[in-house]
Amino acid sequence: MDNRKVNRYRIVGSIYANYIIQSIALIVIMQFSLALTKQLNTDIIGLGYVASGIGIGKICLMFFGGVLSDKFGRKLFIYLGMTCYAIFFVGMTFCTDINIAFCLAIAVGAGNSFLDTGSMPALTECFPSSASSASVLIKASISIGTLILPFIVAFFYTNEIWYGWAFLGFTAYLAINGLLLLPQKFPYKDTVIRGNKSFGNYFKDKPRFELEGILLIIMGFTTTATFVIILQWLPMIAMTGASMSMSYAGKLISYYSAASIISVFITAFVVKHLLKPIICIIIFPAFSALVLIIFYFNISPIMCFVAAVGLGFFAAGGVLQLTLVVMQQMFPTRKGLAVGCMYTLSGLSFFVIPQIVPKLAIIDVSYAILFDFFIALSSVILGSIVFYRFKKVIDLTKI
After folding, report:
1. What pTM value is reported for the model?
2. 3-state SS assignment for residue 394
3. Using one digit for the tens of pLDDT, what is the confidence trace for 86-141?
4. Looking at residue 213, what DSSP letter applies?
5. Which of 39, 251, 260, 288 could tie 316 with a disulfide, CB 3.0–4.6 Å?
6. Domain boundaries, the chain
7. Does domain 8-181 sit in CATH 1.20.1250.20?
8. Is 56:109 a contact under the CB 8 Å cutoff?
């Protein structure tokens, strides 16, 4: 840690609380689609245009947020992220113009970028000896947000309550969390991740950003794309390829989410006591690839369930966060840059995948599964190369 008085549990508690609201902000436009289409005088296509602003804000600002977070510190960027979300919630509540709404959605993407580039390094700096577990648990907060929002939406619609009160409530949530975080002093931004042991310098050689750094950044895309395909397209695959009804196919995502939450806690335990993150970023994608290739040759209702649970557990349970931890272990003085680069590629997958998968699915729905298999396999290959370099530059007994 450092010699300043740092209440790391309060800092981390505020960060996790922010990720609940972050996950809500990312999907709230489509969740309140009925109310917002009426307010903006548009249709679902227009609302999709609004929502696309999130990706633009995220991709454009993530890299710069990471670089500046290394320069100016984590706390500033956490507050910038929270401010962007507050602007979105308040602005959208009273917005009636679709173009202004699009700009407000860009603010969500900006908030996502700033919050990630401030929070992810801060987590590892608060718990340098448990960085993997601290980072993976973010997925639990994200899952909590995506789980509770549908219930909030249903409550407002059922009771015919103006949706704006929900948006203003989210803003109040951010304000309270911001006040609680305000007096907290953060650890030094150059705090080194030490794994579960208390050794000092663990480097045997100098890592090469142009090699393992670039490979890890690419894994930001592949590890995200692996679960994005299943998250967005599994219901359609189940209905088209396995002749499942819409209601049963929709439930697959619930199984996927449940497996993801369970995986978060199991993975946190595993990386704390059993396996190092560098091992997990190879093993988890390997299991994802195995599930996908079996699914490709046997598209049936039972395999749709297995794919939902398997990909929820192995692909969506924190592999991206573990890959980021490995990146931060190898480049401890460039943690913000690591977040910025890796999460930019992660965000890019949300733009690229919808451009490719529908075209494959029109030809044959099984091609979407096969495409996902090759993406998961590429994660295994990339992770294996990084592991080879990891052993060359880092003493594994000291992390």
Report:
1. 0.73
2. strand
3. 999 999 999 999 999 999 999 998 998 899 888 988 888 888 777 777 777 887 88
4. I
5. 260
6. 8-181, 209-398
7. yes
8. yes
